[in-house]
C-alpha cells in the first residue's frame, strides 16, 4: 500500500561544513520505488525521493547508513536536525530506528534514485538480522531514511575506501557476499586496460552475477559455498592464497612489482581483537590511525588490494597477505564489514 503524502525532512548543513568543504551528514527520507530479486540471496531495492537530488555522491564503494523503522513504527521516528544522533541515542530501544550500513550500488541524481543491494539471510521469522528481515519484506511505497553526505566529494569523509595509487598496475579484490555490491561498482568503474583478480565468495552458485563493463583483464572468480560444501570464509581464504601466489609470481618477487619478500618490519603485524574492536585498516595519504594504532600511508607499489567481509575472516586474510606474502600494509585496504554472531 502506498503511503500518504509526506514531507521530506532534511537536516541543515553547518557553517563550519560549508567553510571547510567537509560534508555534513543529513537524513534523506525516501521510499521504495522498485524491487528486483537478483538471485536467491540478493535483492535490489531502488529508493526515490526529491531529497536525493542533493545527495553527496562520493565514489564507487560509498557507504551510507539506513535508519529502519521498528516493526509497527514509521519513518517519522527518525530524529530531525543536526543533533539527530544524540536524539537517536536517547530514544527508547523499542522505538529507536535500527541503523545499519550499506553500499550504494548505483546513484542516479537526475532521477533522484539510489539502488542498494541487500543480502537476504533467510526470510520472515527465519531472517537473520533486522535489516535482512526488513529488506525481505520491503515493498514499493515503504518509507525509510538514508543518512549520507550533503555534497559531492571523495575519500573517507564520504564513506569511500577505494583509492588505488597511480602506480597500481595489478588489482586484487576479495570479499564475501556482503562485499559484492561494492566490488561490482568498483569493477564497472575501472579503465578498460585494468588487470587483476577478484575472489568473491557467495552462498550459492545461483548468486553468481553478471556485470556490465568489467575489463577483460580482470579475472572474476566466483566461489559458491554450496558447490563445495564449505564453511563461510573457507573458499575465500583458498582463493586469495592462490591469487596472491599468481600476482606475486607475475611481479617477479623483487619488491618493485608489489609482493616483496617478508621483512622484519612487515612481519611485525600487530593483532586486532575483532570481538571488541573494528578491523578497518585503510591506506591513504595523511591516514588516521588504524585499528591497530598505526598510521598507514599508501605504498607506491604496483599491487593494490581491497578486501572486505566478515571480520574474523578478514583478520586471517590480513595476516596471510602481509606476513605470508610480504605485501606492504599500505598497499591493501582491510575492512571487517560484519562480525559472525552479531546481527
Average pLDDT over all residues: 84
Cα separation of the termini: 28 Å
At the fold tier of CATH, the topology name of the largest domain is Rossmann fold
Report the uncertain regions: 1-20, 123-127, 251-258, 261-265, 286-295
Q: Helix count, per DSSP?
A: 8
Q: What strand line-up does the widest sheet have?
A: 4-3-7-1-2-6-5
- Main beta-sheet strand count, sense and barrel state: 7 strands, antiparallel
Number of strands: 13
Please state the second-level CATH architecture of the largest domain.
Answer: 3-Layer(aba) Sandwich
Could you give me the name of the CATH homologous superfamily of the largest domain?
Answer: Nucleotide-binding domain of ferredoxin-NADP reductase (FNR) module
Helical residue percent?
10-25%
Order of helices and strands: HEEEHEEEHEEHEEHHHEEHE
Round the Cα radius of gyration to an integer and report it: 20 Å
Organism: Actinopolyspora xinjiangensis
Biased composition (Polar residues): 10-20
Protein name: NADPH-dependent ferric siderophore reductase, contains FAD-binding and SIP domains
Domain FAD-binding FR-type: 25-156
Amino acid at each position: 500500500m502506498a503511503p500518504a503524502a509526506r514531507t521530506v525532512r532534511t537536516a541543515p548543513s553547518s557553517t563550519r561544513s560549508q567553510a571547510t568543504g567537509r560534508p555534513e551528514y543529513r537524513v534523506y527520507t525516501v521510499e521504495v520505488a522498485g524491487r528486483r530479486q537478483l538471485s536467491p540471496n540478493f535483492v535490489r531495492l531502488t529508493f526515490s525521493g526529491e531529497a536525493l537530488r542533493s545527495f553527496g555522491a562520493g565514489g564507487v564503494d560509498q557507504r551510507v547508513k539506513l535508519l529502519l523503522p521498528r516493526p509497527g513504527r514509521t519513518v517519522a521516528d527518525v530524529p530531525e536536525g543536526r543533533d539527530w544522533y544524540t536524539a537517536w541515542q536517547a530514544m527508547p530501544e523499542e522505538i529507536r530506528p535500527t541503523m545499519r550500513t550499506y553500499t550504494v550500488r548505483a546513484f542516479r541524481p537526475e532521477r533522484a534514485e539510489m539502488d542498494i543491494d541487500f543480502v537476504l539471510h533467510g526470510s520472515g521469522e527465519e531472517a537473520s538480522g533486522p535489516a535482512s528481515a526488513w529488506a525481505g519484506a520491503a515493498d514499493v511505497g515503504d518509507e525509510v531514511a538514508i543518512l549520507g553526505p550533503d555534497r559531492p566529494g571523495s575519500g573517507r569523509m564520504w564513506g569511500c575506501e577505494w583509492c588505488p595509487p597511480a602506480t597500481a598496475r595489478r588489482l586484487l579484490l576479495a570479499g564475501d557476499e556482503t562485499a559484492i555490491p561494492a566490488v561490482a561498482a568498483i569493477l564497472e568503474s575501472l579503465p578498460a586496460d585494468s588487470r587483476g583478480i577478484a575472489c568473491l565468495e557467495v552462498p550459492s552458485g545461483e548468486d553468481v552475477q553478471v556485470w556490465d563493463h568489467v575489463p577483460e583483464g580482470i579475472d572474476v572468480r566466483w566461489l559458491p559455498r554450496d558447490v563445495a560444501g564449505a564453511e563461510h570464509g573457507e573458499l575465500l581464504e583458498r582463493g586469495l592464497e592462490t591469487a596472491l601466489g599468481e600476482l606475486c609470481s607475475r611481479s617477479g618477487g623483487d619488491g618493485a612489482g608489489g609482493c616483496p619478500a617478508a621483512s622484519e618490519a612487515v612481519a611485525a603485524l600487530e593483532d586486532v581483537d575483532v570481538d571488541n574492536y573494528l578491523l578497518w585498516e585503510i591506506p591513504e595519504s595523511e591516514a588516521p590511525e588504524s585499528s591497530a594504532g598505526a598510521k598507514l600511508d599508501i605504498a607506491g607499489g604496483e599491487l593494490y588490494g581491497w578486501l572486505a567481509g566478515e571480520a574474523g575472516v578478514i583478520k586471517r586474510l590480513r595476516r596471510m597477505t602481509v606476513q605470508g606474502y610480504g605485501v606492504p600494509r599500505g598497499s591493501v585496504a582491510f575492512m571487517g564489514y560484519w562480525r559472525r554472531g552479531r546481527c
